[in-house]
TrEMBL record:
Residue span(s) of domain ABC transmembrane type-1: 81-273
Entry's Gene Ontology cellular component terms: plasma membrane
Bilayer disposition of the protein: Multi-pass membrane protein
Transmembrane segments: 20-40, 85-106, 113-134, 154-172, 193-216, 250-274
Subcellular location: Cell membrane
Pfam families noted in UniProt: BPD_transp_1
Species whose genome carries this gene: Paractinoplanes rishiriensis
Phylogenetic lineage: Bacteria, Bacillati, Actinomycetota, Actinomycetes, Micromonosporales
UniProt-listed PROSITE patterns: ABC_TM1
Keyword terms, alphabetized: Cell membrane, Membrane, Transmembrane, Transmembrane helix, Transport
GO BP: transmembrane transport
Protein family per UniProt: Belongs to the binding-protein-dependent transport system permease family.
Chief place where the protein resides: membrane
Name of the molecule in the record: Sugar ABC transporter permease
């Protein structure tokens, strides 16, 4: 009897694990399907792509690299990618430099104006860019930054900083005050306690801000289109469409190749920090 129950339990356990793995694989495939479709499409021939009877996830005709080579040889994709990279890194640096101290002040310093000031900062993010770019364009012209990528470095933090402050406030409030107070008892100033005790524990929030600021910078379209016209100064969000969409002609495979080439490095970098991201949530407890 006992043996029969043990066999039944093992069978039920095996079926449960199989169901779990099947669900996980199915969910992973559904999430990865758009990327896989883009990857396959980038190497398809025109005759393969334009036949609606063909399987979109398979090569019904031999694969070709012509469309990927076209992206590098006949467009300024490398220039767009480089401009996007250095603009994104500078915007991330400015966002952290201004957003982290502001979030700390709102989360830690008990001031009567902290609540409504935080709401006012967030309301700035809610203003549509379509209403701001006309007035911001006057600022860019006054500073002589029109048709320069530096105009984006100046403008993008106005989008990234407000939301980043709110994200960081949430993480800073999860860090117990005891940690700061103990660091200050040990001889650190408030700034030293913030840098040495608080910042390491808010690493998940910092990673979230970095990912948010960089992806928003890489995907923003209105400001990049309004402020930058020369091909050598464009970023990916405007450079790729203007080079690969010409009237009613779409270089579809090259567009998908650009999507894949942009997504892969971001995914790799994020996964490199994934362990630190998860570990940050478990290192904020006060040990008794």
């Amino acid at each position: 009897m006992t043996s029969s129950l043990a066999v039944r339990y093992r069978r039920r356990h095996l079926l449960a694990r199989c169901g779990l793995y099947f669900g996980a694989v199915l969910a992973a495939f559904l999430c990865a399907a758009p990327f896989l479709w883009s990857l396959v499409t980038a190497f398809k021939q025109n005759r393969d792509l334009y036949n609606p009877a063909n399987n979109p996830f398979a090569f019904n005709r031999p694969a070709t690299s012509d469309h990927v080579l076209y992206l590098f040889e006949r467009t300024s994709f490398v220039t767009f990618a480089w401009n996007t990279l250095w603009v994104g890194l500078l915007v991330v640096a400015v966002t952290l430099l201004l957003g982290l101290p502001a979030a700390y002040a709102l989360a830690r310093l008990d001031r009567p104006w902290a609540g409504w000031f935080g709401v006012a900062i967030f309301l700035v993010y809610l203003v549509p860019p379509s209403l701001l770019f006309l007035s911001l364009s006057r600022l860019i012209v006054t500073l002589g930054l029109q048709d320069s990528t530096w105009s984006l470095v100046l403008i993008y933090p106005t989008i990234t900083i407000p939301v980043s402050i709110w994200l960081l406030i949430g993480f800073l409030k999860t860090v117990p005050r005891d940690i700061e107070e103990q660091a200050m008892v040990d001889g650190y100033s408030r700034l030293g306690a913030f840098w040495r005790a608080v910042v390491p524990l808010t690493f998940p929030g910092i990673v979230a801000v970095v990912v948010f600021a960089f992806t928003l910078t890489a995907s923003e379209f209105i400001y990049a289109l309004a402020f930058v016209s020369p091909t050598t100064e464009k970023v990916l969000s405007t450079g790729v469409p203007t080079e690969l969409v010409r009237g009613d002609v779409f270089f579809w495979q090259s567009l998908q190749a650009a999507t894949v080439l942009v997504a892969i490095p971001i995914a790799i970098v994020f996964n490199l920090f994934l362990d630190r991201f998860v570990a940050g949530f478990t290192q904020g407890a006060v040990k008794g």
